[in-house]
Amino acid sequence: MESYIAGLLPEALVVDLPEIDAQHEEIFHRIESLKAACFESSYVPIDEFGALLDYFATHFATEERLADEAGLDFAEHTRIHTDTLRLLHKAFGEVISGGQDVHCFLRYAEYWFERHINEDDRLFISVLQASNRDRSSSQRHTASPCFGAQA
Ligand SMILES: [Fe+2]
Q1: Which of 14, 79, 98, 102 sits between 20 and 30 A of 72, alpha carbons compared?
Q2: Keywords on this record (predicted)?
Q3: Residue 140 C-alpha to ligand 1 middle, in angstroms?
Q4: What is the CA(148)–ligand 1 centre distance, in A?
Q5: 15-136 classified as CATH 3.40.50.2300
Q6: How far is the CA of 52 from the centre of ligand 1 (A)?
Q7: CB 78 within 8 A of CB 64
Q8: 88 CA distance to ligand 1 centroid (A)?
Q9: 59 CA to middle of ligand 1, Å?
């Protein structure tokens, strides 16, 4: 899975937080590469699917870290991440055992991810950016009396 497919993150899904946008794009690349690897065959590269699931976990942990650093209540979003990871692992177990179609799994993962970015991440990022703006604004207000005292 060496191929790199440029520009898989649609403009409409850009959330304007470079670390998160880069991870979202990487997940779309991995899904697209797996689609190509599995196309018209029954071959399932198990290690690469495992790497995709691990990357989902890494990405979710990044969002949870950012929320924690900003002091945001992220419990509901974290629950969505946890439930999704459990569901994806279960569904992939069914792919391995032959009870689930690999293409169906990939379509589901991609659909779920796109919807999650639009409905959950976009809201999270806007709250995070507002919180960061508030923090930098209050730091400026805290600093201003010092300047006033020196004037
Ligand atoms: Fe998320």
Answers
A1: 14
A2: Iron, Metal-binding
A3: 31
A4: 43
A5: no
A6: 15
A7: yes
A8: 14
A9: 8
Instruction: Give the helix/strand (H/E) hosting 100.
Output: none
Alpha-carbon span 139 to 135, nearest angstrom:
6
Between CA 62 and CA 76 the distance in angstroms is 16
Task: Kindly calculate the radius of gyration of the chain based on its CA atoms and give it in whole angstroms.
Answer: 20
Residue 143 confidence class, pLDDT cut points 50, 70, 90: low
Average pLDDT over residues 102-130: 95
Angle, helices 18-38 vs 102-116, to 10°: value is 160
For residue 100, what are the contacts with CB-CB under 8 A and spacing of at least 6? Answer: 91, 92, 94
Tell how far the Cα of 44 is from the centroid of ligand 1, in angstroms.
27
User: In terms of Cα–Cα distance, which of 46, 68, 42, 51 is closest to 124?
Assistant: 68
Specify the higher pLDDT residue, 44 or 8: 44
Tell me if the pTM is above 0.90. no
Cα(149) to centroid(ligand 1), Å: 45
User: What is the domain partition of the chain in residue ranges?
Assistant: 15-136
Q: From ligand 1's centre to the CA of 123, what distance in Å? A: 10
Gap from CA of 81 to ligand 1 centroid (Å): 6
